[in-house]
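Entry for the shared binder. Reason: the reviewer on the internal report wants the predicted structure included alongside the sequence.
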Amino acid sequence: MSVRVLRRQALAIFRAAVAAADPVRAVKRHLQNLDVSRFREIYVVGAGKAGASMAQAAESVLGRRITAGLVNVKDGHIAKLRRIELNECGHPVPDERGVRGAARIAKMAESAGREDLVLCLISGGASALLPLPPPPITLAEKQAVTRSLLACGADIREFNAVRKHLSLIKGGQLARLAWPAKVEALLLSDVIGDEPGVIGSGPSAPDASTFGEVAAILEKYGIQGKLARSVRERINEGARGKVAETPKPEDPIFKRVRNTVVGSNRLALDAAARRARELGLRTLVLSSEIQGETREVGRMHAAIAREVRKSGRPAKPPVCIISGGETTVTLKGEGLGGRNQEFVLAAAIDIDGLPDVVLLSAGTDGTDGPTDAAGAIADGNTLARDPRAASFLNHNDSYHYFEGLGDLVKTGPTLTNVMDVHLMLIGSGQ
């Protein structure tokens, strides 16, 4: 089994994982079982990289029953719709288009009455795509917070706790605006554990985090002093009880809210495993909850590949070892890349020289960091083709390393998002 064959198989397995995360089928399946005849008006709102696909599904099922709709989506992640408007805006750093769209979404939810339904479609990327900072905090000041959190390596829960408390719509506040209307939220999970309060910063879910915890997060990473005065004052005043908290689980508004996870990384990994078995490979799914510092997690996967090659543990070749989740990158250089490309670059260094070993890591949304690649692919011969891997890794410049080799994985926008898929294929080479 040659490296060329393993590479083709890795790409086929990844495509199967992405196909299984199709939000159109997931949303249709849920809405077809929902009795909408009891509602006077139906409003469709939401945000995320899969927003266009989810909105398409809502239109196909609800059709003319939709009174109005608006979904914020990432630039380029669009589709043709008739009744729901798609608003393209910035991601991962929010922009003014996102603010305008979020303000309109808030007004739409607020206009709904007790006999109405607010259908909320949330997928990965919604946190950045629903920016609605409370005055006097400006978008530029909130953007600075986002950049600081991205650079310091904060995990997704820490990231979202901060964003919820610098927003008028996240952390259950969209549900508060929609009260007393019925809120039906369909969530495509891009977070470890599939918790509704974490997905998209939980605009329709209770928020257990507090201003006090946010202050501790900023102190942990040493960034509080770098933030604007308006941001610091809001967080400090909130911690002293002078700013209203986000709605908590016991809030009665949530008696009119239902949050349903309709797609997840686990489903994508299951599909990847099925495809790998069809290709004649033994399969082993490690976990759908992989997290941590990207390059260290990549090296851990490389260590597993070396063990398989050396001893046949934890599975004998030919084997496909699968994992998923979302790691974090602590920026130390000024290069270009994303967590999946950095994952593969770090692993490539440690599998150097291993025969018949291929490693692929890519985002199911088709976008890895601020690049046009979903991820990258490498094998035991990668460093022989370009030995400068360590230098590129030190500068967080994985994109340009793999671009030079032609080993970027490019899918274009997939209109879904259930985190990342990591694949290691080990053939029976000597």
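Summary line for the report: The mean pLDDT is 95.
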